[in-house]
Amino acid sequence: MCLLAFDWQPGTPTPLRLIGNRDEFYARPTKPLHHWPDVALLGGRDEQAGGTWLAANARGVVATLTNVRDPRLETPAGAPSRGELVCQALTCADLPRWLDELVDNANHYAGFNLLVATPEKMWHLHRGYERVALTEVAPGVHGLSNADLDTPWPKVEALCGAVRQQDTSGFPGQALTAIQDDRQAREAMLPDTGVGLELERSLSAAFIRGQRYGTRATTWLTLDADRRVAITEQRFGINGRFSGSTTSQIG
Predict the structure, then answer these.
(1) What is the CATH code of the structural domain delimited by 3-151+211-250?
(2) Is the entire prediction scored with pTM above 0.90?
(3) Domain residues of the chain, as ranges?
(4) Is-cis flag, bond preceding 172, omega within 30?
(5) CA-based nearest residue to 119, from 224, 19, 220, 231
(6) Does the N terminus or the C terminus of the chain have fewer Cβ atoms within 10 A?
(7) What is the Cα–Cα distance from 208 to 63, expressed in whole angstroms?
């Protein structure tokens, strides 16, 4: 994912509501949301590297990932695909232990944010330039793009605001409108992530329309206290042209 927001409320009937956009090159081969035939996961799949950006398993565990965009952050030679981390989180035998071990190995990967949630706990692992840190996420509404959790980029703040205002019974509602907003931020509000002003401006929109690169999918999910996960994925092609929708559940 490249932009997401979520309402984390452990101890309630629906501990997690999450919505996100995946931005990617249109030419990168991708399978839409589906039940994987080789492992018991529900999610889209990157056919180039084999991983995924968001998925869930039948035990009520949800995992998703964003890249970190920072000009100071070097990608190690031969770094494995970060999409593998989502699959590993959902198939490991001991999730807390796996996360602790990943802290020690996170620098083998390019920069990333990994979110993993069960109905009881949610973790955030950040691998950035200044630190590698694993934390438990506090209850409430949070947002994430290509920096650390809750970094106040304009599109992150706008999406979080929509999630806060949303009646939970009508989710995604206003959040869906906000995450598919293609307006770009004013120049004075743009972050500097080392990609140049023109690209920074393009990437500031929640929903990116382009000829080669753009928002490929909007996905939202709910995780309930009984460990059921319901996911809807809307897909888009060049210039944001709608190309299909899938809803499924697991657990």
Answers:
(1) 3.60.60.10
(2) yes
(3) 3-151+211-250
(4) yes
(5) 224
(6) C
(7) 23
Residues 204/147, Cβ–Cβ less than 8 Å: no
3-state secondary structure of 233: strand
Q: What is the identity of the amino acid at 77?
A: A
For residues 221 and 14, what is the distance between their CA atoms, to the nearest angstrom?
A: 11
Helices (H), 38-91: 83-91
DSSP, res 204: T
Is the CB of residue 207 less than 8 Å from the CB of residue 159?
A: no
On whether the CB atoms of residues 26 and 213 are closer than 8 A, the answer is yes
Residue 166 pLDDT? 86
Helix or strand holding residue 44 (H, E): strand 41-46
Question: At 103, which amino acid appears?
Answer: V
Q: Which helix (H) or strand (E) holds 161?
A: helix 154-165
Residues 244, 241: Cα–Cα separation, whole Å:
10
Reply yes or no on whether the pLDDT at 169 is more than 90. Answer: no
Distance CA 111, CA 43 (A): 22
The pLDDT tens digits for 122-151 are 999 999 999 999 999 999 999 999 999 999
Length of the chain (residues): 251
Which helix (H) or strand (E) segment holds residue 213: the answer is strand 213-223
Query: If pLDDT is split at 50, 70 and 90, which confidence band does 3 have?
Result: very high
CA angle, 186 then 4 then 60, to 5° = 175
| Segments in the chain forming alpha helices (H) | 83-91, 95-105, 154-165, 174-179, 197-203
